[in-house]
Model the fold of this input.
Amino acid sequence: MNAYAALESAVLLLHVLWIAWILFGWLLTSGRPPLTTLHIASLAWGIAIELGPWPCPLTVVEQWFQAHSSQAPYQQSFLVHYLDKLIYPDLPEAVVAWSGAAVCTVILGIYGVRLLRHNRGV
Done:
């Protein structure tokens, strides 16, 4: 394995950890305002990347390392390339992107419920 392939693997791991943070970060944030703020910002970023016209920076870096390690870089988003084959076989990229944004929106709803409960003193 050359250095570029190793770096590509490291970025892939970072990408998986980022997605885990997006999906499960709300479990770690209760009563921790700095983490809550960071997670809400991460969710907003996730929605923007999924629905916006620009690619995720981690995807760009991963593709760059792939291209420099004698691999053909994938052309889709990270979610479509890796997760589509496991979770959403043969769905259009737009469906995968909107599903990712919907999950982020549901998690933001959890924060809305927490805020309402906090304001009501529950």
Remarks:
- The chain has one domain: 3-120.
- The two ends are 55 Å apart (CA to CA).
